[in-house]
TrEMBL record:
InterPro entries: PhoX (IPR008557), PKD_dom_sf (IPR035986), TAT_signal (IPR006311)
Source species of the chain: Sphingomonas guangdongensis
Low complexity composition bias: residue spans: 779-788
Coiled-coil region list: none
Pfam families in UniProt: K319L-like_PKD, PhoX
Gene3D superfamilies (UniProt xref): 2.60.40.3010
Species lineage: Bacteria, Pseudomonadati, Pseudomonadota, Alphaproteobacteria, Sphingomonadales
Protein name in UniProt: Phosphatase
Length: 804
């Protein structure tokens, strides 16, 4: 009986044979349909031996064994043979005879190995060892390996509050890159005592989401399959000023010292750093020509429908087409044509705009500025107070003057809140801001699966409480040839500068609608009484206000998102809410989570969404809730709806990352890595990373896919839920050090290396009294060491695929 194919899995060996040989060939003499060409020789896939009766030469004596003989997908299997002969054995070979196709590490010799492939159900793989002596006599032995569907083959890490990264038994952790590490040969090592300068040539602070881009082994060429050399493109969401300066930052009030502000601004943005694996482990390539920093001072261009609009005009760019830098970056996604899309999330807090500025602003401007939170008296770090007239710092003062907009920086906030595109393979490529994707607090970005002839989509989340989910659909259908490289930024121009932006409106029956943010429709026009839109550029610049008018569904802090490579379902992390008073179907819970007195959805949840027909172009969708965050001890009926246990309870999922479909962990029930950035659970455990075997939208039985939640405030809400999550399908994989968040995860294409970002350890400490010593203490005690955000490498001691 032939197994049903697994989506994205390699074909079975029988399928390959069928493609090569016809039925007539299979019936000819002793040449069977299982004859394969290996190492330049034809091997007959039949058991037994060939006794050379003309010479009386006996064939070799052979055996073949497998360890282990029964495995789950993703497990490494070793095949071992013996071959003895009265004369001498001239050659030996291994070949697969049947079953789901596996890739052998060697086809000659006595030993070989393979990683068990993804299978839809239990599958028997047959391998044949053949030995040939000097006289040409051969003998073969077959060995069977039973491969079962994927399983999480590690022991869950216990909740803890240790100042270390904790991983399962059988795994190892190494620190790869940390705040301040140099990116050029001339940049000195990081002293980590506050004296360091030159962050434009150092890795930034607060590493957040990131992606791995494979390189060819010996040069800067693109090789997306290379799992031992690549670049990491990484966001820097913020800074911990206490540790950047010798004794912390200067006290607030008055003018900030220029040197401090230069360091703080340069520590934001994006880093591109080359990394490579060696026999001693992974390391940074400090002098790589691909290493790059994109900071709040980097020149970039604004593309798309808002470019050149009056809303973007400033004293720096009177034409409204150029900008400087990116800041507050959280989400980062990889495009199939080889670029990184970075989302500006927490950008509004950096601007100075006291209430006195309202007198110089129209009612419309006041509405727009307030809706995005550009309302700080001094700005988060007081950068606008730097003495002098350097517009790099004066621009953080968003107050209007008596002159025109081109005389000041009243529109500088409009230059932020976009998706930023970076080419990690070409440091000379100019960075673009893609205005067609809308201006938000971009906390999540997820490209759809790009299919030839179909217009692709970019899904996005707005990271505030009660904000919305969005989708941009390109005007241009995907052409697979664009994945081959060439001018990657031109490909971004092609797919991301023209299209339609939508916002999500959910219905209680498990369906929903993508409503277009198009000027002149649905009240998005000059006649609107609450906000008079001037044009499409105004709609995109003020996408939040457009979402309000279109009655989009407010969500519980939408954050990281990714599309499953196995099912195409969009997964969305909802961090939680302390302000929800009225539930809705996709955000159904309102409860008290002791010891806090706040009532809301403090632990968050993960939602799944599928466009109708699995087409990114579709304007309708279906949804359910995959996981409800909760402590294991909370009410099982109305709070701990996913029946989480001590081995997998969690709170505040912020980032999501699927294993790649280039290895078994990303096929079938693909592994989903869930990262948390949460304070509600810190009385129990530090933040964590969980690994789950994802299902598919609608995987619950029809009678079990609805649930009515009874809330602490007396309301009740019907919602849609997925299949029950068992302890075997969701486990805690990693726990972070003190006061840190787990903000990014990424794997190599072969699934055998996991990169994880640990952000702001010891964030509540001071230079004199740090509240964490990580990562210096990961290798041993390091009293007094200042903590740093860092990227770690997690590997299995046996070289297997992570989590399987």
């Amino acid at each position: 009986m032939t197994d049903s194919p697994v989506p994205g899995a390699v074909p079975g060996i029988a399928d390959l044979i069928a493609q090569r040989y016809s039925r007539r060939d299979a019936l000819r003499g002793s040449a069977t349909a299982a004859t394969l060409l290996v190492g330049g020789s034809l091997l007959a896939a039949c058991s037994g031996s060939d006794d050379d009766t003309d010479t009386g030469n006996p064939p070799p004596t052979v055996t073949a064994t497998a360890a282990p003989g029964t495995v789950t997908a993703g497990t490494r299997v070793t095949l071992t043979a013996t071959a003895t002969d009265d004369g001498s054995v001239a050659s030996t070979s291994w070949v697969q005879v049947s079953g789901a196709a596996a890739q052998l590490s060697a086809t000659t010799g006595l030993t070989t190995s393979f990683v068990a492939p993804a299978v839809g159900s239990s599958n028997t793989l047959v391998f044949r060892f053949t030995a040939t002596d000097n006289a040409g006599a051969t003998a073969s032995a077959d060995v069977n390996v039973t491969v079962n569907t994927a399983a999480l083959n590690f022991t869950a890490v216990a909740k803890n509050r240790n100042d270390l990264v904790t991983v399962p038994a059988g795994y190892s952790v190494a620190v790869l890159a940390a705040t301040g590490d140099p990116l050029t040969a001339a940049t000195p090592a990081y002293a980590n005592n506050g004296s360091d300068t030159g962050f434009a040539a150092r890795i930034g602070d607060h590493g957040a989401n990131f992606a791995y881009f494979g390189l060819t082994p010996s040069d800067a060429g693109v090789d997306v399959s290379n799992s031992t050399r690549g670049t990491l493109a990484m966001n820097h969401e913020g800074i911990t000023p206490a540790y950047l300066h010798p004794a912390g930052p200067t006290a607030p009030g008055g003018s900030r010292p220029l040197a401090e502000v230069v360091k703080e601004t340069e520590a934001h943005g994006v880093s591109v750093v080359e990394v490579a694996a060696a026999t001693t482990g992974w390391g940074r390539v400090q002098a790589s020509p691909l290493n790059r920093r994109v900071t709040p001072s980097t020149a970039m261009v604004l593309r798309g429908p808002v470019s050149g609009n009056a809303l973007l005009q400033t004293a720096f760019s009177p034409a409204g087409t150029a900008g400087r830098g990116t800041i507050g970056n959280a989400a980062l996604a990889q495009t199939p044509y080889g670029t990184a899309l970075s989302g500006e999330e927490r950008w509004a807090r950096y601007f100075r705009r006291p209430a006195s500025d309202n007198a110089r602003r129209s009612a419309k401007e006041q509405r727009a500025l307030a809706r995005y939170g550009v309302t700080a008296d001094e700005g988060l770090y007081g950068w606008a107070t730097v003495a002098g007239d350097d517009t790099l710092y004066r621009r953080w003062d968003a107050q209007a003057t008596a002159g025109a907009a081109t005389a000041d920086f009243r529109n500088e906030p409009n230059q932020f809140g976009w998706v930023v595109e970076v080419d990690p393979y070409n440091p000379a490529a100019t960075v673009r801001k893609r205005t067609a994707l809308g201006r938000l607090a971009h906390s999540g970005i997820a490209p759809s699966i790009f299919t030839a002839g179909v217009r692709p989509a970019i899904y996005m989340s707005d990271g505030g409480e009660n904000e919305y989910l969005y989708k941009f659909v390109s005007q241009t259908a995907w052409a697979s040839a664009d994945a081959a490289g060439g001018d990657r930024m031109a490909a971004g121009d092609k797919y991301l500068d023209t299209g339609t932006l939508y916002v999500a409106r959910f219905a209680a029956d498990g369906t929903g609608t993508w409503v277009p943010l198009t000027f002149g429709t649905n009240g998005l026009d000059a006649a609107n009484a609450t906000y008079s839109f001037a044009d499409q550029a105004d709609v995109l610049t003020n996408a939040r206000i457009a979402g309000d008018i279109l009655a989009a569904t407010p969500m519980d802090r939408p954050a990281g998102m990714q599309v499953s490579p196995a099912t195409g379902d969009l997964h969305v992390a909802l961090v939680g809410s302390n302000s929800r008073t009225a539930p809705n179907a996709p955000n159904p819970r309102i409860y008290t989570d002791p010891p806090a007195a706040a009532v809301g959805n403090r632990n968050g949840h993960i939602l799944r969404l599928r466009d109708t027909g699995s087409l990114p172009e579709a304007t309708t969708f279906s949804w359910d809730i995959y996981l409800f965050g909760s402590g294991a001890d909370l009410d099982a009926t109305n709070v701990n709806v996913s029946a989480l246990t001590a081995d997998n309870d969690f709170s505040g999922a912020e980032s999501l990352r699927f294993a790649r479909p280039s290895n078994p962990a990303g096929l079938g029930a693909a592994v989903l890595f869930v990262q948390t950035d949460d304070t509600a659970f810190r009385d129990v455990t530090n933040n964590q990373l969980l690994a789950g075997l994802s299902g598919a939208l609608g995987d619950a039985a029809t009678t079990a896919n609805t649930r009515t939640i009874t809330n602490a405030n007396g309301t009740s809400q019907a919602t849609r839920i997925g299949a029950a999550v068992t302890a075997a399908r969701l486990k805690r994989f990693l726990v972070a050090p003190n006061e840190a968040a787990v903000t990014g995860a990424e794997t190599t294409p072969d699934g055998r290396t996991l990169f994880v970002n640990i952000q702001h350890p010891g964030e509540n400490g001071t230079a004199a009294a740090p509240s964490s010593n990580w990562p210096a203490n990961q290798a041993g005690a390091a009293p007094g060491a200042r903590p740093r955000s860092a990227t770690i490498v997690v590997t299995r001691n046996d070289g297997g695929i992570i989590a399987l």
